[in-house]
From TrEMBL:
It catalyses: ATP + protein L-histidine = ADP + protein N-phospho-L-histidine. SUPFAM superfamilies: ATPase domain of HSP90 chaperone/DNA topoisomerase II/histidine kinase, EAL domain-like, Homodimeric domain of signal transducing histidine kinase, PYP-like sensor domain (PAS domain). Residues 8-261 form the EAL domain. Residues 409-479 form the PAS domain. The keyword Metal-binding does not apply. InterPro entries: Biofilm_reg_signaling (IPR052155), EAL_dom (IPR001633), EAL_sf (IPR035919), HATPase_C_sf (IPR036890), HATPase_dom (IPR003594), His_kinase_dom (IPR005467), HisK_dim/P_dom (IPR003661), HisK_dim/P_sf (IPR036097). It is an enzyme of class 2 (transferase). It holds the Pfam family PAS_4. This is histidine kinase. NCBIfam families: sensory_box. Residues 260-279 are annotated as: Disordered. PROSITE patterns: EAL (PS50883), HIS_KIN (PS50109), PAS (PS50112).
Length: 763
């Protein structure tokens, strides 16, 4: 019994030692010929903690049948011991047969793998033709990297088996390039093909294609007699599974083999005798099913031979054949010139010549009656001479349509990108410019080649670069478009102001791969906007100057006239009263102008709004009584807010004064204080006076606009500024001859950070 332990003396000193102390034992799963019923080979299995257990009762969880590349030294040990055991069987007189060993992808793709196999064969003295290496379809799919390894192994004489066929995504073209000797139909298909027609079609197709490529086929995991019978009916060459024989030890396999009377027959003789028997035993019905399978495949399979100077087709089947408007009768037995137009026939004959000359990888694209297809040609050798060439074809019409649509889409994109005035820039994840549209020459006065494959940040100043980089990272993180304005440094000290919208390009998995920037030059636009702002400021200053001149001229004219009268000794006492009133009016105007130039108030206090309104109403009580007015104050609940009490009183007093003056006939003025939401307080003042028209409402707050005889319009303008400084807002609603409602909203929170106050506020 072959056991593997870390300190076992039987292991060669130059072999890799195991990575754990767990005992491992090799067992063998026989490979049975389905025509003769005889054992023709065995697959090596690794058994964990196996202690002289009968093979028929071997627990499944002790069998380690697959190598996953987790322990390279264990795989090499299995390969070495399998070769030694096979040589020992031959020396014991057993008919030579092939032993198959699983090889994982990591070990197979190692640079020294072929040398390792060659060394083991020399040390074990086993002829290479009795060793079969089993690889998965995943390794075959990497044929570009592993084809050289396959060729070197084939030169050694080692046989190669492809397992789990049908589970992966490798195509027939890749399969046809590998020098295979055997293919294993995956157990997933074997267990389902009896009850599922789709699986049955797949199994028949695999067997049919393998037969045409002269590759033997083995079914894995055969568990029922019905599966076995169906596989024989499909002309499958061999099988493995518990319905035939379970895993056995080396000693048991030797006894069973010798008991079956196989000793004395060479492997070449066995192979030579089995194949003719299998072919003669193949019923006509099975051949018909094979052709039916080829007929029902989505692609097309054809073969040809060279007769004289022409290539004559010997087989042609598949759905693709009918889609291109041909039938087998129009192809089989005929050369290309009888099937295709002369130009196409001459072109394809060049590929036929290459395959017939023995070239192993010949592919070409064909187009017949509106259908595109891809053909892969593989020569079939016998004694080193090409006997036939078999071709597998797949329909690529949809792929061609997609490529054409992509080409048209790219052409449209380039048409737009190369003719629009805005610049299109594509950045990769490192912010390198991978594409820039030709319009960059007009916008930035640089050629596309001058900035291509460079970081966009290298063309910006340090400050602008930090801003743009932060925006780019936000785009990649948030995966949403963003707009940014930045300056682009140019020669001769000129700078260009650019506006760019960056949009992330997301892959199918949601990961961002690139950023597309659409950039436009907004330098002229911003300069025009700046010019308009300056003109607007000049216009405002002009209006303000005209208003100041108008408001000050009236009191100055009055004072000037009275001074002239006083100079003529024509003065009266009431003149002094009038002059004093004009001086007070002039002082009020100047005071309001001074307030407009002041900074925000920093004196905020936590104020009781209800108490503040009550103090205001007490101050104007005498004025309301003289106008036969009644103030009705309603405070829903006591509210506290941060504010400058003096300024808020100025606003409320001004609004109440306007309400009083709008009701010369007397009446009631309503004042309501209530919370608005969780963070605001509302003060509402309602009068039933003359009201205002919609046109007047639009001009509320303009300087020097007033409905009063001696009003300057600065009162409401100042009120607006106070409310704005407190982060509040005001709303007017009025109808002529019905009254006016004013609502003022203030936030309860502190409008400025404490650091801006110079310390903590006082209450």
């Amino acid at each position: 019994m072959q056991k593997w332990e870390q300190n076992h003396e039987a292991v060669e000193p130059d072999l890799p030692q195991p990575l754990d102390r767990q005992q491992m034992t090799l067992h063998y799963l026989p490979l049975v010929d389905l025509q003769s019923g005889k054992w023709i080979g065995a697959e090596v299995l690794l058994v964990r903690n196996f202690l002289e257990t009968d093979a028929e009762t071997l627990p499944a969880d002790r069998i380690v049948t697959q190598n996953r590349g987790e322990d390279e030294s264990l795989e090499k040990w299995m390969l070495h011991m399998a070769c030694i055991q096979n040589r020992q069987w031959q020396e014991a007189g057993i008919t030579p047969f092939v032993v198959s060993v699983d090889i994982s992808a990591p070990l197979f793709l190692k640079e020294d793998f072929v040398q390792t196999v060659e060394r083991i064969l020399l040390e074990s003295r086993l002829p290479a033709r009795y060793l079969e290496l089993t690889i998965t379809e995943a390794v075959a799919s990497k044929a570009e990297h592993s084809l050289d390894i396959f060729i070197q192994l084939k030169k050694l004489g080692v046989q190669i088996c492809l397992k789990e066929f049908g589970k992966g995504l490798s195509c027939l073209q890749q399969w046809s390039r590998i020098p295979l000797s055997r293919v294993n139909i995956d157990r997933t298909f074997v267990q389902q093909f009896v009850i599922d027609q789709q699986y049955s079609t797949v199994v028949k197709m695999i067997i049919g294609i393998a037969k045409n490529l002269q590759v033997r086929v083995t079914a894995e995991g055969v568990e029922t007699a019905e599966q076995l019978h169906r596989l024989q009916h499909f002309s499958c060459d061999s099988a493995q599974g518990k319905v035939l024989c379970g895993p056995v030890s080396a000693e048991q396999l030797q006894k069973e083999w010798m008991r079956a009377g196989k000793q004395g027959e060479s492997e070449s003789e066995s192979t030579a005798s089995i194949e003719p028997v299998r072919q003669r035993a193949t019923p006509v019905q099975t051949q018909e099913e094979l052709f039916e399978t080829l007929r029902n495949q989505q692609g097309m399979t054809f073969s040809f031979r060279k007769q004289g100077n022409q290539f004559i087709h010997t087989l042609c089947q598949g759905e693709l054949l009918y889609r291109i408007g041909l039938t087998p009768e129009q192809v089989v037995g005929k050369p290309l010139l009888d099937i295709l137009p002369a130009a196409q026939a001459v072109r394809k004959e060049r590929y036929y010549e290459r395959a017939w000359a023995g070239e192993d990888n010949v592919n070409y694209e064909g187009y017949v009656n509106g259908v595109y297809y891809l053909a892969a040609l593989r020569p079939i050798f016998q004694e080193g001479i090409v006997q036939e060439v078999i071709a597998s074809c797949v329909d690529i019409t949809e792929l061609k349509k997609a490529e054409e649509e992509k080409r048209i889409s790219e052409a449209k994109f380039r048409l737009i990108a190369e003719n629009m005035s805005d610049v299109i820039v594509i950045l990769d994840r490192q912010f390198l410019i991978t594409y820039v549209s030709p319009s960059v020459n007009q916008v930035l006065e640089v050629t596309p080649e001058a900035i291509l494959h460079q970081s966009i940040l290298s063309f910006l100043s340090a400050e602008e670069g930090i801003k743009v980089e932060a925006t780019l990272r936000e785009i990649m993180l948030d995966k949403h478009p963003k707009l940014i304005t930045f300056t682009w440094g140019q020669q001769e000290g000129r700078r260009t102001i650019l506006e760019a919208k960056g949009t992330p390009v997301l892959h199918d998995c949601g990961e961002d791969g690139q950023i597309i920037f659409v950039i436009r030059n907004v330098t002229a636009q911003l300069q025009a906007e700046e010019f308009l702002r300056k003109m607007e400021k000049l216009s405002v200053v002009g209006q303000l100057a005209a208003g100041v001149a108008h408001e000050i001229r009236n009191p100055v004219t009055s004072i000037k006239g009275f001074v002239q009268l006083l100079r003529r000794d024509q003065g009266k006492k009431e003149y002094f009263d009038i002059m004093l009133q004009e001086f007070q009016q002039l002082e009020s105007i100047l005071r309001e102008f001074v307030f407009l130039t002041q900074q925000h108030s920093n004196h905020y206090e936590l104020t009781n709004v209800g108490e503040m309104i009550r103090s205001i109403t007490s101050c104007i009580q005498a004025e309301t009584d003289s106008h036969r007015l009644e103030l009705s104050l309603q405070v829903a609940e006591e509210q506290l807010m941060w504010c400058d009490p003096g300024q808020i009183k100025q606003v409320i007093s001004h609004l109440l004064t306007n309400a009083i003056e709008s009701m010369p006939e007397g009446g009631i003025i309503l004042i309501l204080v209530r919370p608005e939401g969780e963070d605001k307080v509302m003060i509402r003042i309602v009068d039933y006076g003359c009201g205002m028209s919609e046109e007047r409402l639009k001009r509320i707050g303009e300087p020097f606009y007033s409905t009063k005889e001696k009003g300057t319009g600065l009162g409401l303008m100042i009120s607006y500024k106070i409310i704005e400084n407190h982060d509040g807002y005001i709303h007017f609603c009025s109808e002529p001859n019905k009254g006016t409602t004013v609502e003022v909203y203030f936030p309860m929170k502190h409008p400025l950070p404490l650091s801006a106050q110079g310390g903590a506020p006082t209450t």
